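Reference record
================
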Amino acid sequence: MRRILCLFLFLLLMVDSVRPAVRQAVPAKVIFDTDIGDDIDDAYALGLLLRSPEVQVLGVTTAFEDTHLRARLATRFLDSAGRSDVSVYEGPKTPEKAHFTQSAWAEDSPDRTYPDAIEFVLDTIRRNPGQITLVAVAPLTNVGALIEKDPKTFRKLKRVVLMGGSVARGYGNKTEPEAEWNIVNDVAAAKALFGSGVPLYVMPLDSTQILLEAPRQAELFGKKTGMTTALEELTAEWSAATHRESPLLFDAVAAAYAVKPEICPTTKMRIEVDDKGFTRRVSGPVNANVCLVSKTDEFFDLFMARSF
């Protein structure tokens, strides 16, 4: 009897010692909110999330301007990556301008209707309170719609990881901040987000201007997978439209933070969004965790190691 009891206690101790590791292995639940199709970094960010076992992408929501064409692009990209299990949801359209650089590739995706992004996000949060990470790398039109429709449910997000803002550096690493794209295109939504009380992790221009130069592109495209072929085609279309050869991986830094936060250490601060879309660091209660300097080498170690 004593031997049986000792064996039972031993097994209990073994289970307790394994349990924390099992908990850590559970992927974080992520929704990816994107304006894929304008700049090219959204596609690289989505690819990184799809190939990262640390996260489970529950859905892709398209934001800003022609959200339907963005949904078609995201669908084709997911199919190319062998991830048709990830559903795409269409956010509210906004007035369009000539930003879409990858429209031809998107239009080769069969057309269909897409479910509503706002309902999907709110329903997913309700079913998983305190568990959902929203990776927001687009102008904040969807975020504003979520807060306006159901602020109580929005506050049940685990966190928002945002590519947006400019604290001390502007585009081209200028030593003065600028009104950054994702903020300035919906200032009201940005103000609502920074005032929402949801844990907010911000990757601004200060830390996200990481260049994917030609040798790394060649290494990536040389893998010749469905996803890397899609990335090569999209990058070529983006390059032809913008006359630029090397993408800046703004959004991929936010995706990397969702996977491995130590890549972009954050500082607690209070950010105030002004009427012109500037994100000002001010005194007062903390409302954001902001990464001002990312670890570029560690970022590329992660980015290039993933089997795109």
